[in-house]
Write a structure and sequence with these properties.
The structure is a homodimer of 324-residue chains. By secondary structure, chain A is α+β, with helices and mostly antiparallel strands. Chain A has helices at 39-56, 78-99, 147-155, 161-169, 174-185, 191-197, 211-222, 237-248, 255-259, 275-284; strands at 9-11, 18-27, 60-71, 102-111, 115-124, 138-142, 203-206, 225-229, 266-270, 289-296, 301-305, 308-310. The longest helix of chain A has 22 residues, at 78-99. Chains A and B meet through strand 1, strand 2, helix 1, strand 3 and strand 4 of A and strand 1, strand 2, helix 1, strand 3 and strand 4 of B.
Chain lengths: 324, 324
């Protein structure tokens, strides 16, 4: 009704639907690095991570507000700042058009670093949350795991032992290496998958902190435990090759897919009787999906590979405050 | 329906009402200074500035989301960071309770500086915006101007000539000096005034950047000009005394009230036939209000003092990107 330009946006919610709201920030030097990614990529990602939260709720994204932190560092000239701000905006705008979501408000503040703090608003009749899973539910994963974490390690280049090792290990799989870079720089939010799953699943979460950490959040809210069948995790050829190389170097053999983070895949719990309906609905929505485990009594997570127990990695997932 | 703890909040909008959304950020070193104000004050202010935007729209505030930027500087110990975060939260929580608004979501991200980026959501049947004023409308100001800017100058202490000068000028008015400090540190959002005005006024804006700058925004959106009667501006005794001292030192004689910013008062335009109804409704809501000028044809702002023209100040208002 009233969009950007006024201090407030005026929005007309759909009758009888619930409003779903989420906020997420991307800070330069913490969540993105303008020496590794373009400003356009950062803009895309800032919106994508918010849309992913709406997708997990099974909500249709409608509007977003963007608060931009603009650095006032003396070495940044006006024209360079303006060009970066424009590219951030273009990255958001392209994804916004594609996703049918409208920018309705914003704010610009001086800051130390570039930052994008977005609030996304969507609508749903019966939104999913982390609560609602129970022992016996199947765990269904839509999308892939590990690719974004692999992309980040490759981007960080040769500063550490990791990337050289990975570059060597990946010589045979260039196409899925490119996919890993794309997963890191321009993640997709699985909005259609969330909409398809909303009437069927019992609980859901999007994978931002890593499969284990986010599964832990879902289990904590739903008060149950889980068993994961590692051989069923949807990993690209590059992620498999990289994890094999990392395992040789002493890391967990599913280091990227369990703890890498930034997958923006969706993890659903579903009653056993509806498991096939959920898998079919997700595939009809255009998203690959498979059952990767099951909820059990208790509160712990057990890992298995072809039926044999596998220890948990030492570090479960991504801590937003400790990442270098 | 689902509040903090999940990635998304699920909210039930009231049937038949419009949703009003706004986002505003406070960044340490730009918008607040933890050596001048407490973290509790900063938390209060971060919510108040967002509620003020809703108040200007005449919306009833219902929910807010808070994205917190937490510094990762090496000299900040865990316990100190936690204590500051808690105080910021307490400042927000106290005002939230008072205003009937619920925290429904949040995000924490590592950052260079403390920052609070809030998105506030309210509801209104017929929200006001900057658009809708026309020549002949009266300009009605609810609340006061100049006090917050005076408070800031006093807080900044003796680094510049200004504050010493002001401290001397204000020796006779200690009570309204305290009010100025409070206006700077813990501004009130005039929510009741906005609700009272919504069915009567033709346009509105809250005064965050300064009366002249924000009046300019309203006039730009409404495509008209204005005449302001400076002697009618609602200024405290301390603001009057300080402006007199500043005028002696070469500043504009209404420097604080025209360009100071952070007043969080509300400026309304209203058709002449409804001017008295608006003033009465605002006073019934518990807010002082008076007519301070009128909309005219054209696009410019003319200042008058007892009918005689007064030049505009050189700097109209507060530029969010240039404040030291």
């Amino acid at each position: 009704v009233v969009g950007p330009g006024d201090d407030c946006a005026v929005l007309r919610p759909s009758a009888g639907r619930l409003l779903v709201a989420t906020t997420d920030a991307l800070v330069e030097g913490v969540h993105f690095d303008l020496s590794l990614s373009s400003a356009r990529d950062a803009g895309h990602k800032a919106l994508a991570v918010n849309l992913s939260d709406l997708a997990a709720a099974g909500a249709r994204p409608r509007w977003f507000l963007c608060a931009l932190g603009v650095p006032r560092a003396p070495d940044l000239r006006g024209a360079a700042v303006f060009a970066t701000a424009r590219s951030l905006g273009e990255g958001m705008a392209a994804l916004a058009r594609e996703s049918g979501v409208a920018l309705v408000g914003g704010n610009v503040a001086g800051a130390e670093r570039w930052s994008l703090t977005l609030t996304a608003l969507g609508e749903a009749s019966a939104p999913l949350s982390r609560r609602g899973a129970r022992p016996g539910d199947a765990l269904v994963l839509a999308g892939q795991v590990g690719a974004a974490a692999l992309g980040l390690r490759l981007l960080r280049g040769s500063k550490r032992r990791g990337p050289d090792l990975l570059a060597r290990a990946l010589r045979a799989v260039p196409a899925s290496t490119r996919a890993a870079l794309r997963a890191q720089l321009r993640p997709d939010a699985l909005v259609s998958a969330g909409l398809a799953a909303a009437p069927i699943a019992s609980a859901s979460i999007d994978l931002s902190d890593g499969l284990l950490a986010d599964l832990g959040h879902l289990l904590h809210a739903s008060r149950c435990g889980a068993e994961l069948d590692l051989e069923r995790l949807p990993r690209s050829a590059a992620v498999r090759a990289a994890e094999a190389a990392l395992a040789d170097a002493g890391e967990h053999s599913y280091a990227l897919s369990l703890s890498g983070g930034e997958d923006y895949s969706l993890l659903f719990a579903v009653r056993p009787a509806r498991e096939r309906a959920l898998l079919a609905a997700l595939r009809r929505s255009g998203t690959s999906a498979r059952t990767v485990g099951r909820c059990v009594r208790g509160r712990s997570i057990a890992l298995r590979e072809r039926g044999r127990p596998v220890p948990l990695p030492r570090q479960a997932g991504w801590d937003h405050l400790s990442r270098a």
